[in-house]
Amino acid sequence: MSSYYFSIIGTRDNPLYEVEFSSFKSSSSSSSTPPGISQFTDSVKEILPFVSNSSLDLIEDAQWSTSQFNLGRIDSFYGLLVYAFITQGNIKFILCFESSTTNNGNVTQKYDENSIKQFFIEINDLYVKCLLNPFYAVNDAITSPDFDLKVKLLAKKYL
Amino acid sequence: MDFPIGLDPYTARQHLLHHTFSPLISIQSSHNADAFFQNILHNEHISTSQVFKPYGNNAKYTIPNQSFKIINNQLITKNYPSFPVRFEPSLPELLSVFNASSTNSTNTSAGITSISESGLKSSQLSQLFSISSLELLLKHSSKDTAEKDLYLHFFNKIITSNRIVPFETFNHPISQVFVVEYERDSLDLLRRLIVDFRNFSFPKFFQIDDLLIHVFIIYDSNKVPNNEVISFQNQIKSTLSINSTAFPIAETKDTQDNFIKMSIIENSTIEEDLQRISLQQSSTTTPNYIHIPKSADAVIRTKLYEYINKYLIPHMQSKIRFWDDQMLQPKKSITGRFFSASRKFFNNNSSDSNLSNVTSLSSSSGLNSASFNYHENFYYKSTPEQTIRKLADWSLILKDFKYAYSTYDLIKKDYTNDKAWVYVASTQEMCIVSLLLAQTQQVNLNPIQPDKNTLRKIRHDIIEPYIDNLSYTFKSRLNLKSYSLKTLTIVVELLLCMCSTFSISWWWNDLIEKYLLKLVSEFDSHLIANNQRSQVIRAILYERLGYSFGKCNFLSDENRHLLHFDAASQFHSKQELSEEEELGEEGEIGFYKNPNKLHAPQNNGLDGLMRYRKSSLWYLLSIREWVPLKNYRQIEYLLNNIKLVYNIEDIKDVWHDREDILLGVVKRILDKHERNIVA
User: Number of structural domains, chain B?
Assistant: First the structure.
């Protein structure tokens, strides 16, 4: 069961939204921890925002070399994998997660990458909807509980 | 603007040349010479070698207009402003210290190396340094070393060693100097010293014939006339056929102005430092400084300069030329190649049998097929393999890096054929080091960037495979992890030098990161196995990671002008240009202005071309290691290196100052600490 940290970063490197969760898959086997609660240790937790922030350097480098919005895996930091997606409006979606230990690594990773891509695409839809709100300005923090719920549903669906 | 602040890799390179790749000169003094210096310095605890030791670094203790002329094998003469040497105690003394310590360490580490393994491998080879001692020492010195110098301190300790090993000859003395006092020491005493020295049973890999024997004669110029000493020198020359240098030292009056304060802890190893610290804690009799009279200081400097220029360098040059002629050229010739090829194909059986039949030291066959001693892991001193290695080492010392590289490359094949793994690993290390030293030797101010093919060859054909190979050999085959740690540290610094000379960070940056992370994990795993936390070492290495990322830029030459800092503002705060600037002439009254428009941030052209945010992350991790050690000076120093990315002045209502994440936590701790000081 891997843990995830997802954040949306604005154009001024400011986080707009962040959430921690863990995979809902195969959680039934381990009954001790409730599903969906992230398992990051405290020492990892306190640096997660900085890990995403530091990966911006690589995102801004990678964004010029591809026409895709989904940048895929751009960084890894002590077992933390960092995936990124960039929107048309220069907003970055960053997903950090601890790579899960699976037996057949390759197949799962491929599957992971596809589901992360799908996750990002649907988050982008959500973000655009949020942006359509006349009371929301770019670079404001996203505080809508509805948005939060939908992100979590997407996480449950894909990750 | 110089950002981030840290050790310039060129300083590290210079220290490498001064402390590791410099001639080792062993000093043996008579009792009277010691007494003479004790009298002059008014210090009863000083020995002659302690007095000479700091002067070995003639880059620091210079004389006016000094220049060292070195003629290389192609007969090209070059002058160098400095040529440091290392003064160490005499060889028998050094060896006895190591023998004592190695028997100790094998007793204690018996749990780690299984007995069957250690029996198969050499029982002689021991670690270059003890990682736990290094951590201990750094923890101690982090309290009083200047923040900026801590990495240099770490680097120096790793590269400084006087351990004598068969597979590299940097620590084999090049010259043996006997120090005698003219008035009380006689020629007979000198003869006896030399005979005793020659009769010592040296290790079988050490060639005493290459040693330059020399005599320093010390006398009081107030009491003894010059010509008497000159006749004594002639006498030595005629009876013992040894050259000598005279040091006229006059006693001076006891006023403080006439003395120079000198540190005696130049070039000390980790163990020496720890010993000194524990001694100082128990008593106050061992200061770090000695006071040398100005006149004596001048004499020692000039006479050592004379000795190096007149005897040491010519001795090395002639030896190199001789070996080149006798050993290297025959090997390079057609017949030599034919022999080595035939040896490779027809000698497989004998090398196998070598494993069982232990020693066959000197081979009678011209092919030297059995010259490697598998049991004790060394080549006999007179074999071409040992000599050519020495040739390469010495030419590196004389700063002929290209020649050294080609020699290392050549001899490496022989070692591989002989399965002399420790030699292979050490030669691979030196291949990388000499190659990088040659690349970073700044001959002119505008160095030409090596082309891509060269870079590709250096990286993919030399550095990467060699490093993998040698770490495997040192770690798994020989259980000598510390040697591979030393190599990694050196290679990282030299690569950083290359990055800064040719601005090709994009080419090396990931490799530097990989090696530094490898260092972190190796140190960690070792210390955890010994129930110790590697806090200080880890913090220092994280700091270096931060530095290497901070210095990294991917700008092409024509875009370099875009890089400008405004020290007051943060680099990545994406502060927008002020509206007037943005709108320019069109911003006249009457035009509609969209208040929600996002303006282009400053440094827009540099997006993705710098690595400041990544560098800040490593600095933050380094800070996190210092927090439990309560080293606030270090924390503040490191915070300065992230000021372009994060606001470090005060706690604001922004994301990175939240109290549950690292920077917020650190700032609150610092704040509390400052308030405690005030209160």
Answer: 1
3-state SS assignment for residue B406: helix
Under an 8 A CB cutoff, do B598 and A11 touch?
A: yes
Residue B317 Cα, gap to closest chain A Cα (Å)? 50
B598 chain-A contacts, CB cut-off 8 A = 11, 138-139
Angle at A76 between CA A74 and CA A78, to 5 degrees: 170
Distance in Å, alpha carbon of B667 to nearest chain A alpha carbon:
13
- The 3-state DSSP class for residue B393 equals helix
Residue A39, classed as helix, strand or coil, is coil
Is residue B649 in some structural domain?
A: yes
Q: How far is it, in rounded angstroms, from Cα B199 to Cα B194?
A: 9
Total domains, chain A: 1
CA atoms within 13 A on the CB side of B458: 22
Q: How far apart are CA B355 and CA B374, in angstroms?
A: 6
**Domain containing residue A107: CATH number:** 3.30.450.70
CB proximity B611 to A under 8 Å: yes
**A15 to B662: CB separation less than 8 angstroms, yes or no:** no
| Residue B667 within any structural domain of the chain | yes
Other CB atoms within 10 A of residue B248 CB: 18
DSSP strands (E only) in B259-355: 259-263, 289-293
- Domain assignment present for residue B66? The answer is no
Find how far residue A119's CA is from the centre of its chain.
8
* Chain A residues bordering chain B (beta-carbon distance below 8 Å): 11-15, 43, 45-51, 53-64, 77, 137-139
Instruction: Determine whether the interchain pair A57/B661 forms a contact, defined as Cβ–Cβ distance below 8 Å.
Output: no
Interface of B with A in 11-70 (CB under 8 A): none
Q: Which domain holds residue A130?
A: 3-158
Q: What is the mean pLDDT of each successive set of 10 residues along chain B, which is 679 residues long? A: 82 92 93 90 84 88 88 87 90 81 51 37 69 89 80 92 89 93 90 91 88 93 89 92 91 70 81 84 71 87 93 94 89 74 56 41 43 82 90 94 94 89 94 93 74 92 95 90 94 93 88 94 89 85 94 80 62 51 55 78 78 93 92 90 86 88 92 91
Q: What is the value of ipTM here, to two decimals?
A: 0.92
Contact A12 B612 (CB under 8 A): no
CA distance A48 to chain B (A): 8
What's the distance, CA B199 to chain centroid? 33
The verdict on residue B321 lying in a domain is no
In chain A, the N- to C-terminal Cα span, in Å, equals 10
CB contact under 8 A, B611 and A51: no
pTM (2 decimals)? Answer: 0.88
